[in-house]
Design a protein that fits this description.
six-stranded antiparallel beta sheet, globular, mainly beta, 14% helix, 73 residues, 1 helix
Length: 73
Amino acid sequence: MHKRLESDADLFIAALSQTPVSVLQTDAEGVYCEVDRGIIEKFTNKSVRLSTIMDEIAYYYRDDGTIFRVETN
């Protein structure tokens, strides 16, 4: 099961608990696909900074249709 992170509180809890977050964006056909995964290091009302599983830093905009989600039990 997955939980979509939509509010600042959702993102804050995921960052604080260092829960791995999946990042999904649409492909050329409009289908959502996972493009990255990592731990939220910082977020603003416009973007999310992620430390990825490849030990890189990635930035994603929150208002361009990007979905952030976590796995729940």
